[in-house]
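Hey all, sorry for the wall of text incoming. These are the two entities for the joint prediction.
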Amino acid sequence: ETGVTQTPRHLVMGMTNKKSLKCEQHLGHNAMYWYKQSAKKPLELMFVYSLEERVENNSVPSRFSPECPNSSHLFLHLHTLQPEDSALYLCASSQENKNIQYFGAGTRLSVL
Amino acid sequence: GEDVEQSLFLSVREGDSSVINCTYTDSSSTYLYWYKQEPGAGLQLLTYIFSNMDMKQDQRLTVLLNKKDKHLSLRIADTQTGDSAIYFCAEWASGGYNKLIFGAGTRLAVHP
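and here's what came out:
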């Protein structure tokens, strides 16, 4: 248990669906991250939130929409995804001035 | 640019030592990390080393850092079947915001 909880653990969706991934951290951190993990590729940083403001967006397609309502919660809203978006989506958190990130177990997403 | 490279696969016999290697490109990285990912799980921070250190030991784990060659290694002594996992090397990227750059991961298989 890392203190970072992601739900759901598995998600199957069609290309026309809208779904959301949720991340919650119980570590008192104030920075949160979304990563995409595809097979045999390095983790790709998608979004960074610090103090509930988005500070980095690594050229992610607009079909992925993040939301950070408070420092403990992070969402990734998904709509009209493509099959190549199938991957493991990992959430992480850290203290804003510290460089140790703690990861959740991820959501395994399959787009049909 | 920033890049972290690792070999994709390593197979060792139970009880032997495992050595997982990594090269990175950002010579100004202040921290380098090793994360472990077991099947169906997120990334677990194993250890990290500050760039002014050459070596760090933590029980069965030994991290060696060669800054001149930009080479990082993780040695696992007395490798057990429970060590079977994917091991990710990561560097703390200078510039930008709280960014970790990951390698593609090395899958360690431990056989009897």
